Predict the structure.
Amino acid sequence: MTVIAVANQKGGVGKTTSAINLATGLAAIGLRVLLIDLDPQGNASTGMGVGRNDRAVSSYEVLIGRASVTAAAMATKVPRLDLIPATVDLSGAEIELVELDARTHRLQHALRQGRERWDVVLIDCPPSLGLLTINAMVAANSLLVPLQCEFFALEGLSQLLSTVERIRTRFNPGLGIVGVALTMYDRRNRLSEQVATDVRAVLGRVVFETVIPRNVRLSEAPSHGLPALIYDHRCSGSEAYMALARELIARLPARAEAA
């Protein structure tokens, strides 16, 4: 089982959209996928069509030890894709975790139970570098960073990379960055092209070749409770996420195999 944390402490970079559609793309390719919503806003859960009243067992219960990952996981409309939803209870989890044993390893320990059930786990992290995101990074084999093609794209990235290095040193020496995904790319805007060029100059091959375009269908899909890949699989955004899913699989250190 490969665990990937989708993280960027900067909000509005397409993190949740990337997590939802990559999970859907990997499931479409034939992998057994678990998507964990670790953001108190619960946008990944909403985007998968799970209403707030249908989230009886959530990632909060998993973190504090009230439920196992297998008990919390629920089937979605996408074959082979399960979801552990988030509720507003996660907002207080940062404070509660401080008082618990192994507070940075709670998710890692919980995921051990799912090793045989899923091929890939994607964790949608909150836009911060608190205990929730640290739990995701400690549990993960790899980190995927969505990066918006706008002027402040690289702002804060150094802080994220510094945090990753601290996680490697103290908790998880095997954590690697599987790639940086450029999102919200507008081909009509010269700034998008310049930002993409600058990011590739700084980060090199760690940046995925696939670029996710600005696309209205990507924005519309969550309001229908569907991944864009299901809402409109022919739109440019869906095609880009399918290409990114294939590129992601090729980059994984221990390549996941379809069940």
